[in-house]
Amino acid sequence: MASSSSLIFFLLLLLLLPCVSLAQSVGYGEQRRLRFLGKECQLDRLSGMQPRYRFESEAGVTEIFDEDDQQLQCASVSVIRRTLKPLGLFLPAFSNNPSLSFGFEHGRGQSERLGDEHQKILHFRQGDILAIPAGVAHWWYNSGDRPLVAISFSDTSSSVNQLDKTHRQFMLAGTYRKEGSRGSFGGGQQYSSSYHAFRSFDTRLLGEALGISQELAQEIQREDPRGEMVMVREGLKLVFPPSKEQLREEEEESYGGLRGSKRCEGEEETIKRSSNGVRVAFCTARLRENINDPRRADIFVPHAGWLKKLTSQKLPILGILKLSATRGVLHRQAITSPLWNVNAHCIVYVTRGRGRVQVVNDEGRAVHSGEIRQGQLLVVPQNFVMLIKAEDEGFEWVSFKTNDNAIESQIAGKASVLRGLPVDVVANAFRLRNEDAFKVKFGRADGVGIFPAHSSQEELGRPYAVV
Amino acid sequence: MASSSSLIFFLLLLLLLPCVSLAQSVGYGEQRRLRFLGKECQLDRLSGMQPRYRFESEAGVTEIFDEDDQQLQCASVSVIRRTLKPLGLFLPAFSNNPSLSFGFEHGRGQSERLGDEHQKILHFRQGDILAIPAGVAHWWYNSGDRPLVAISFSDTSSSVNQLDKTHRQFMLAGTYRKEGSRGSFGGGQQYSSSYHAFRSFDTRLLGEALGISQELAQEIQREDPRGEMVMVREGLKLVFPPSKEQLREEEEESYGGLRGSKRCEGEEETIKRSSNGVRVAFCTARLRENINDPRRADIFVPHAGWLKKLTSQKLPILGILKLSATRGVLHRQAITSPLWNVNAHCIVYVTRGRGRVQVVNDEGRAVHSGEIRQGQLLVVPQNFVMLIKAEDEGFEWVSFKTNDNAIESQIAGKASVLRGLPVDVVANAFRLRNEDAFKVKFGRADGVGIFPAHSSQEELGRPYAVV
Amino acid sequence: MASSSSLIFFLLLLLLLPCVSLAQSVGYGEQRRLRFLGKECQLDRLSGMQPRYRFESEAGVTEIFDEDDQQLQCASVSVIRRTLKPLGLFLPAFSNNPSLSFGFEHGRGQSERLGDEHQKILHFRQGDILAIPAGVAHWWYNSGDRPLVAISFSDTSSSVNQLDKTHRQFMLAGTYRKEGSRGSFGGGQQYSSSYHAFRSFDTRLLGEALGISQELAQEIQREDPRGEMVMVREGLKLVFPPSKEQLREEEEESYGGLRGSKRCEGEEETIKRSSNGVRVAFCTARLRENINDPRRADIFVPHAGWLKKLTSQKLPILGILKLSATRGVLHRQAITSPLWNVNAHCIVYVTRGRGRVQVVNDEGRAVHSGEIRQGQLLVVPQNFVMLIKAEDEGFEWVSFKTNDNAIESQIAGKASVLRGLPVDVVANAFRLRNEDAFKVKFGRADGVGIFPAHSSQEELGRPYAVV
Description:
Chains A, B, C: Pfam families: Cupin_1. The structure is a homotrimer. Chain A is α+β, with helices and mostly antiparallel strands. In chain A, 16% of the residues lie in helices and 32% in strands. Chain A has two domains: 8-284, Jelly Rolls; 289-459, Jelly Rolls (Sandwich). Chain A contains twelve helices and 26 strands. In chain A, the strands form five sheets. In chain A, strands 16, 17, 18, 20, 21, 22, 23, 24 and 25 form a nine-stranded antiparallel beta sheet that branches. In chain A, helix 4 packs across helix 5 and helix 10 crosses helix 11 (434-442). Chain A starts with 7 loop residues before the first strand and ends in an 8-residue tail after the last helix. In chain A, 61% of the residues are buried. At the B-C interface, helix 2, strand 5, strand 11, strand 13 and helix 4 of B face strand 19, strand 21, strand 24, helix 9 and helix 10 of C.
């Protein structure tokens, strides 16, 4: 089960809530965001960010991007990067915000498909996006032989979060370290430890509630210096019901991408216990999707790169989380069309390489014009016009977006803004001669979204009918 | 009609808006909340609250919980308790927030089923939850022979409320008294009277608009010292259309619990007037549901108590209000599982008895650890882990929740968090030997949600297969 | 095409986004508003407003109502009035908020039906409401021979707007002038120019991205003093695909009012280009509706006037924008019923005449009691009770409402609050004799919504059955 030669880790989602609840996105609670409120955001200067806080656990490292930073605060997002050692267990926890996580390993590009899947315990592979609803407890385990890195993005202004606009992590075991000055990050304090939920209950009450002895309750309440990730020296032992293998086969074949949305509307019972004649039903809403495969890209441009969008249409749970993601790869010196995000903020995290990114605000001023590189984060606000050009080592990124059906408006290329403008409007708008307006409109007539290096000149001047 | 030996009161909902409007939850306006905004909430200490303001009307008493209190302000809820004397009429009014009311009588537990029902005039019985949308005018009348108490909970951060986050009561007759320092409660002023809407219109214009003489308009505008509840000395005379009795029978039988959602999608005409050939259609969206009957509980545990949830699945109008409620009864010394509310705040009002309530925040610190008793209110924030143990007199409560499909995550018992964790994860999470992890996981294996007193020891150590 | 004798202007909506995206209102992003937050609004005095800022472009005038004004800020709306000269082109732009625009010409009342329609280029006629989603680029052109006036209303607290609660206009060409002290209106600065998006990009990168020469990129980036509306001296030349005329006919006939919602769910391809074998699909979600025709009014009362509501039921795109509008005409001395808006703010813009408007708040105090006249704007907050009486020249207005299914609760007339109250409740509420309560209840028994001048006395005292 735990293949020591492959890079995976497990996730358990404790979906012990009635399946129907989670399947009902409306009933679950619509996510609503209200950003830039309370204070007015002056996004005059954006910049590539790196994590500000860091703490070590027994089995890994937690790096937190500064939630007080203007960019993250204005966009109402919280970003954490975790590195989990092999045999490391991220302890059970939940948070007040929905989140998307992207798993990867620095310096490697291949994802490996693994065989095992179980309704409660998911394999989270490199290149997977993992969607976790607010308030749902989960744990992770790295069964591979290499450290795994996960960048996790939380939407603190999600309407499901009825607490304040910070990221709060509720531990069910272990300890979390908090720093900074904002919200739950402890006003004024530089460091504070967050203990797990059981620690402060009256020991007698806790024993009674859990049906255990006071001594055992006390043991649970002991101080734990191991942090939020602990080593499982001898490897985690998991016992599965006998029918697991077959069940998985059947699921994969019969339901594929629709399993989450179809099956979960009713209830799927996969673990059947005969004790007391009561059967426990688990929910298998699909929570992950791989976005690392160029062969399944939405846009693939030879010599330029590829883009893959993951929206609620492909992963229905995103309709509940109101978040989506895009994976992008630009080859050396390739460039994107100028574009804006119609209905979402876009948080770019660079997984490899370097690129030059320009962002222009509503006043037509560049609020970012520089390089961002591997490990850095950039917030591109809604409607701001942006453009990326890869440096020689290429540019690979994952974008998290604050809308489950985020829409981009491309300015150049097929199905773009310029293509929708009559030539005479272009001419009058920019005071150009008609032939120049024609060039502006059709300069990238053949391209879609991303363009290879130095190809622009060749494509100029081709004959097109005026639309 | 007005049975003097039974405890009822009437409610008229002036649903003169097109039925279709209310039936369309999306069109009506989605509720959206954004809590804890504007200022950051420090919920370091929760405590049982009692009403702070009180004013007397001719026919009853209005008691208002302090809207400025940290707990209520952070949760963005407003709570009012009213006691209406027999023959008392709560004058027509509406508010800027949706609300749920729970009717009860101190010291009595039996609800009585009454025969009469009319599409405009509902019987609101003891143990009923009554749902009132924002902006919809209504009145109540106590046709019984004992005072009736109603605790009303309003969601001031409902997105239907586009005014500020306070409770505003718009009277169509009578006077409302406001106190305190916040919002409409009159900055700085200690007391202020709110008059009904007709009072300040130009008398001539009002007469003209209503089609009455200026003298009569003037009479309507007179000062009224009776407050918001007035005595109807000789009893309220209501005249019903002849077919009412039959209509009711038919409705009850044919539509039952689905009447609100099914029939209202079209339009149900129950009062037909032939004047001018125009028929006035009234809407009968179901607005109430009784939650006081242990026989209809969701969870019933002998010697421990029972729980009944009222969500939008049972009462569809709650899908518009985005609120739900739970009725709970714990017998002497019974205890709940530790649990958290996944997607809602939970406002607990104790209707009888005393209980010890512990609440733990994201830092693992107890923000409440004490007794709350009959007549007190406690706000339990979303995701905070809580636990209730009844004292010897038992503990009965009603919880209002800020989500129409509020979900609880139980920690112990069947279908709980602990049951979902593999034994080896429990062992590694708490550094326990496997046999102790087994006890933690299965200590409450037989129970669901609430457990009887001192039963924990007996249930320990039973043989269970490891999952 | 460009009929010089008729008053029209064109709109191009660059709906180059996948149609399905816009058709999915939920996926597009639900609009959510939270008004009156951040600061508490003291709406003690409302008043008719006129535009505060004004700037001239080559082809017209832009007049901006003060976004910092208490009324507009509390209601979270932004209002701009534009006058576009004949042959004037409003340059391509988009904004961070959804908006409704109403087109009219001062002093004229007749709208003219024009023949041409194209899926990309809409005719925006006098009396049309035009709905524009946030982040969608568009341009307008006045092909008529008279100046056209458009009053545009934006919902700055729309949840689709994830930027701050101001109106931000992103130009794709030309220049926008901003004034005032709030948000993007440049803190402290009195005047600032907003340039178009292309201006600040690195010239080399821009050329490369658009596939044009650096010289041409430089030309696009030139400073442009013409503002946001420019003259097209020789008239705009638009070339249409051959099948346009027929296509339009077919659409008009076959789909009528349902075209937007039905056809757009799939995808409608109307411009088919064979280049590269790829077909570009355009979306024809219906974006406009005429509300100027008394024959299609919802309420038409001889000698009193008429009302027409435009909600998402009639124009489905409003369900995405979460906005609606009402057109109202009151003849000389006619009066409305007192009423309140149940679930929306109401922003009244007077297109002609004068009227006396009274507005009463939750304390029963008149917060507005005076005249408003042509060209003025009044914000009527949700739930506040209002009443309008036309002066001798009549009163014509358009109301924008912050809910796509805004509901009004009429107090007098058929299907009104008073009609829903039993006579005995009216009598006890206002301490009236039964015969007077009867008069109050039935004083406007025959009317609906608006009543002609001085007709009230005649209608008194008619015999009605008590309900």
